[in-house]
Write a structure and sequence with these properties.
The chain is mainly α and 351 residues long. Helix content is 69%, strand content 0%. It contains 14 helices and no strands. The longest helix is centred in the first third of the chain and has 35 residues, at 2-36.
Length: 351
């Protein structure tokens, strides 16, 4: 009985957390981008435009659902749900406090990597079933990009796992006497870069590059099914922010304030960085994105893993007064050296 009560309560908490977080992110990003681009942003629906995401949701739900005549209709219908459910399921192992989670799996990291990789199947189903060359091109770009960036992403997470000695997210938070971002600055940088490519955020948003392929895999979607893809995009952004906060910024741990409040503050800080990147950097070309992964990010991820293994074996990671400045210095030197060796083949980024 208690197990079912625990399951029901935390399922409801996760659902409310994700929906509220997505609505807040949509409003915060549109408002923030407006400020960064010297314009007001949404300011008509409710105070400070707070009701604009709800108005947009109602508009999307009331729109007609149009399906192309040559589309594979069952696959076209299932694709948004195949993409959305895994994006929601990731939160099952995220701790909102000490032990406050739906399931404290001792393979929590493996669970997240396995479940989150299913989202790309939904995107491919959408691109293939739409019978549209722009949709298929967007889907194929997604597969190439996500398979490539999965490798440095996993290697960056392994650094935090080695320091904590556990795959459980709750144990990783407890192991952080100082945030792992200080002991793993290079790993944190690699994680944020690879994760933004995984969820197709600017400057890696090639799968829906509207100036090239209209809207990519979403071109033939409308109404509620388009709304589910939109929800998936922001749910993935929320999950990336939550996982970054948990693995590298101490998660729920912090003085004075309740744990959930510390987690929310760190999540908003990570999302603010993602929003700033979107407002600052132009979209890269597909060859630049792939070269950046294989020639720059992957070698750095391997070096970071080897350095972390050396720190753990020698016990230097316990000497914080030495390990923190040593890691920060090594990260700066490696980034500078790697950037001098990296060439994209010329050309300009897509604006």
């Amino acid at each position: 009985m208690m197990d079912w009560l625990h399951f029901g309560v935390f399922t409801l908490i996760i659902f409310v957390f994700v929906i509220t977080g997505v609505l807040f992110f949509i409003w915060y990003e549109r408002r923030g981008l407006g400020r960064l681009q010297l314009r007001p942003g949404p300011n008509r629906a409710g105070p400070f435009g707070l009701l604009q995401p709800l108005a947009d949701a109602v508009k999307v739900l009331l729109k007609e659902d149009i399906v192309p005549a040559l589309a594979d209709k069952p696959v076209h219908f299932l694709a948004p749900m195949v993409a959305f459910v895994p994006a929601l399921a990731v939160f099952a192992v995220v701790p909102f406090g000490d032990g406050a989670m739906l399931a404290d799996l001792n393979i929590g990291i493996l669970y997240i990597m396995a479940v989150s990789s299913v989202v790309v199947i939904g995107i491919f189903m959408a691109g293939w079933s739409s019978s549209n060359k722009y949709s298929l091109l967007g889907a194929m770009r997604t597969i190439a990009q996500e398979v490539s960036y999965e490798i440095p992403l996993v290697l960056s997470i392994l650094g935090a796992v080695m320091l904590a000695g556990s795959l459980s997210l709750n144990d990783i938070v407890k192991a952080q006497n100082v945030p792992f971002a200080l002991l793993q600055p290079l790993g944190f940088l690699i994680y944020m870069t690879a994760a933004m490519a995984e969820i197709n955020r600017t400057p890696f948003d090639l799968l829906e590059a509207d100036s090239e392929i209209i809207a990519g895999f979403q071109t033939e979607y409308s109404g509620m099914k388009f709304g589910l893809f939109y929800l998936t995009e922001y749910a993935e952004t929320l999950s990336v922010s939550v996982i970054a906060s948990t693995l590298f910024l101490g998660g729920w741990a912090g003085p004075v304030l309740p744990g959930i409040l510390w987690l929310v503050i760190k999540v908003v800080a990570v999302f603010s960085f993602i929003m700033w990147v979107r407002a600052t950097f132009p979209r890269l070309r597909i060859d630049q994105v792939m070269a950046f992964c294989w020639k720059f990010l992957l070698p750095l991820a391997i070096l970071n893993l080897l350095l972390t293994a050396g720190l753990v074996l020698t016990g230097l990671n316990d000497q914080l007064w030495l390990a923190v400045p040593l890691n920060l210095g090594l990260a700066a030197v490696l980034v500078v050296l790697a950037s001098r060796q990296f060439r994209t083949g010329g050309g300009h980024a897509v604006t």
